[in-house]
Amino acid sequence: MDRAAPQTELLRLAVDVADAIHGVEDLKTLAEKTVAALSRITRSPRIAFYLYRPEEQQLQVIWARGFDRAVCDVSAVLPVEGSFSGYVMRSGQVQGCADLEKCRQMSSHTKRALLQAGFRSIVVVPVLYRDEPLGVIDLVFRDSRPLQESDRVFYFSISRIVGMALKHVQHVQRLREEIQLRTRREKELENYREMLEEAEELAAFGSWVYDFSTGEIRRSREIFQILGVPPEKAPASLEDFWPYIHEADRERVRAEFQEGIRSRGESRLRFRIVRPDKRVRCIAVRMRVQRDEEGNPRCMYGSFQDVTELVEAQESVRRYSQQLETLRNIDRLIISGKSLAEIGHASLKGLAKLIPLHRGSIVRFLWEENQVEVLAAYRQPVAGLQNGSILPIDHFPVPKSLYSGKIQIVDDLSTREQRSPVEQQLLDSGIRSYIKVPILVGSNLLGTLHIAPVNWQDVKKEDLEFLQEVGNVLGMAIRQQQLMEENRRSAEELERKVEEKTAHLRKILRAMAGREVRMAELKDVIRQLRRQLLDAGLTPVADDPLTTEE
Question: What are the strands of the beta sheet with 267-274, ordered from one edge?
Answer without folding.
Answer: 217-219, 206-211, 297-306, 280-291, 267-274
